[in-house]
Design a protein that fits this description.
CATH architecture: 3-Layer(aba) Sandwich
Largest sheet: 8 strands, mixed
CATH topology: Rossmann fold
Strand order of the largest sheet: 1-2-4-3-5-6-7-8
Structural class: alpha/beta
Mean pLDDT: 97
Distance between the termini: 28 Å
Number of helices: 11
CATH superfamily: Alpha/Beta hydrolase fold, catalytic domain
Low-confidence stretches: none
Strand content: 15-25%
Radius of gyration: 17 Å
Number of strands: 8
Number of domains: 1
Shape: globular
Oligomer: single chain
């Protein structure tokens, strides 16, 4: 892993795959870090893609500037990372909060994207009271106060039983997230409203959602799909929020098929 100055802060990032491969930038969820994408690394690099994974501000090895943050801050970090690394265009894939960043990139920085994949995400997350309560609870008692409920939203019960080691790692990463960074990003999600913004997206877009996702349900994915002309929507069966982990094989196959199709257009 490496660190670089981007958008005025230090961002942690990692390369995987051959240098000459088409670039895929992977953006993680709230309370995760770049290791969230481990199930996708071997299949995507074996297919010839070069991966750029990074930690959002307030997460993993990246800096924890004073909050609150906004999705615009997080999107500016992503663009700043591209600029700092001298990258002109990438295929961008973001899950949950990463997908919110992807929506801003697609609407306002579409010239930097070959394609866009929005996973387990939403353009609007009401009511704000839910997020204010979470901010208050975590601020007072830490992430241990919400981790069990989060895991139950992120994975189905059968998924938790089938993938105990993967769930353990996700849980550990969540608990290790800096509280200040988590709270800053909670504020960004609370204040999110991209319902009109996403109509400006013209980049080829794939939308993926888990069949049993409680936090960003299928209805939210359909809303985004209906507002991005030419986008595709795929519902991943037997998966909740972290579909890339719970149903990694089907998720990755679907992602790869889309990327391969877009690669032909570069």
């Amino acid at each position: 892993m490496s660190q670089i100055q981007a958008n005025g802060i230090t961002l942690n990032y990692r390369w995987d795959g051959a240098e000459e491969g088409p670039l895929v930038m992977l953006s993680h969820s709230l309370g995760a870090d770049l290791t969230m994408w481990e199930p996708q690394v071997a299949p995507l690099t074996a297919a010839g893609f070069r991966l750029l994974r990074y930690d959002h501000r307030g997460h993993g090895g990246s800096a924890v500037p004073a909050g609150p943050y906004s999705i615009e801050h997080l999107a500016a970090d992503a663009v700043g990372l591209l600029d700092a690394l001298g990258l002109t265009r990438v295929h961008f894939c973001g899950l949950s909060m990463g997908g919110m960043v992807g929506q801003v990139l697609g609407a306002r920085h579409g010239h930097r994207l070959h394609s866009l994949v929005l996973c387990s995400t939403s353009s609007h997350m009401p009511p704000p009271e839910v997020w204010n309560e979470r901010i208050q609870l975590v601020g007072a008692k830490g992430l241990a106060a919400v981790v069990d409920a989060t895991i139950d939203r992120w994975f189905t019960q059968p998924g938790q039983q089938r993938l105990p080691e993967a769930v353990r790692k996700i849980r550990a990463t969540y608990l290790a997230t800096p509280v200040a960074g988590f709270l800053g990003c909670c504020a960004a999600i609370r204040d999110l409203d991209l319902r009109a913004t996403i109509r400006a997206i013209t980049t080829p877009t794939l939308i993926l959602v888990g069949e049993h996702d409680q936090g960003t349900p299928v209805a939210h994915a359909r809303f985004i799909h209906e507002r991005i002309p030419g986008s595709s929507l795929v519902v991943i069966p037997d998966a909740a929020h972290l579909q890339n982990v719970e149903q990694s094989e089907l998720f990755t196959q679907t992602l790869l098929a889309f990327l391969e199709a877009q690669k032909q257009r570069e």
